[in-house]
Every structure is written in structure tokens, then in C-alpha cells.
Amino acid sequence: MAAMLDFIQSLPKAELHVHLEGSIQPETLREIDPSVTLEQVRQRYAYTDFTGFLKAFAWVARHLRGPREYGIAARRLLEALAAQNVRYAEITVAAGVALWLSLDLAAIHEELLRAAATSPVKTFWIWDVTRQWGPIPAYTAMEMAAERHDDGVIAFGMGGDEAHGPALWYRDVFQKARDRGLRLVCHAGESTGAQSVRDALAIGAERIGHGIAAHTDAALLELLARRQVPLEISISSNVRTGVVATLDRHPVRKIFDAGVPVVLNTDDPPMFGCTLNQEYALAAERFGFTRIELEQLARNGFRYAFAPVTA
Ligand SMILES: [Zn+2]
Fold it and tell me: Among 15, 21, 190, 232, which one carries the catalytic annotation?
């Protein structure tokens, strides 16, 4: 086991699906806001279902009030990634939430660039919007993202409550984002079914966040494999949010064996009690991924990165 962990540590890795606001360790939140106790954070992170998770995410996000707080969060996340031999990261920032809270997103982005400049992890940013809020506010976030396309914002995405924000609402804003040079990602098939993944593909998503519901639809799996559309899979996340009933029922093996490109990610590491290395270890221990397959997963992180990069 120790040998496997050493092997995983030694793999150069990329992290393509991690939310800055969801990456905040209890100690980091204390650094951001000393009035919060570690116990309070742990209680908030002890939700029991997907709705509870979204509430916990919103709670922690509300402590990020400006560049200082975002900068601390980014520095601590990048330190954690570097320590796991992560060489490349695309970090998602909830731009829609920041704008909704009337935060100075332009100044925040400048601070995030400063944080990344001192890290050995080559870093880009994905700005995402909250799908249940509808497409109107998404245009503002998209415009601001596009203005920063040459300044580290590489993609535009969407997360939140799939059941109350169909991807098809976002066809036009996604098209405009693409026209402005942004790459496109979309959470889909996480808390709802395979049709959500099809809808994300229909609006141009190039990578699917989670997408695990695809395993219930053989034709969709075949389509994803044929078009080599990667699924950003976060095993612990799916168990903790309850979208899969138990760890052993996670479809990562089935999806991988169907020839769909899989990239392993953490999503929101402290909120799910995971690290990227632990996700690789889970794949090995619980789903029988061999070292050669783990190497393939790690290579996929670079292959499906939006910036040209090699391990
Ligand atoms: Zn996510």
C-alpha cells in the first residue's frame, strides 16, 4: 500500500476540476475569518445530501469577500496541489456567485494571478455560473471572462443545481463564450440523469463535470467514447453528496472500460475529505486500476487540459 501511495505521489498530475471556494480547509477558513471556529467549519462540512452540500458551499463562499480572502484560498490550494506533484491546474472560480454578491471580481482575478505567479503549478482559471439562477446574469460573467481570456481565464462553465437549471437555457451564452475564445465545460449527469449530459453536449461542452449518469445509457457511453469527450470524475464527491449510494457502486470502472476518457479530480477536497492522491488510491484499491491505468488517468489530465501542456 505504501508503495502504491509512493507511486501515485510520483506521477505528475493535472487537476482539472477543483472549485476554489470548495477547496478551503477549516484552518484556511480560520486564516480568512478568525471569528469562525474549526468546529463550525467541520459541522458545515458534515452535510448529508446534495442540497446540504450546496448550502455548505454557499456558506463557505460567503466568507470570501474580496481579493485578500480569495488570494489566501488560492495560495493554500496551490500549495496543497504542488505537494501532491500536481504540475498543472484549471481552477474553477464561482464568478456568478462573486458577481451576485457584488464583489470586485476584476480585482479578485488580479490577486488570483498574483497567487498563481508564485506557485510551481501552471495554473489557469475557469469561471463558472450557477445554473439555477438562469442565463441572464451569466452574460455578465461570460463577458468579464472573455475580457480576461488572454489573462488566465481559459474556460467558461456552469455548476449548481441541475434539476433546476437545464443546460439548454445556456445555449446562447455558451455559443457567445466559444465565439470569444473561451473553452466550455459543464457539470452534468451528477445529480440528474443521462439526458443532462446529452444537453451539455448539445450546448458545446468539451468536458463534462462528473457525467457519471452516462453509465445508465449505453448509447451515450458509446458517443462519449467515439467523440473522446472526457468526464471529470470525482469519486469521493459523488459518494459524499449521495449521488451514488455507496462507494462500491460508483461507475468509474464501467465508464473507463467503455473507452470514455476519464480524468480524476477532487471537486471540493476538504468538503469531501479527499485529496487528489487519495482519489487515485481509491481507483487502485476499490476499482482495481493498475499502475498502467493510473498512469493513463494521470496522462489524461494533461491530454484534456485546455492549454497545451505536457507532464
Ligand atoms: Zn464541481
Answer: 190
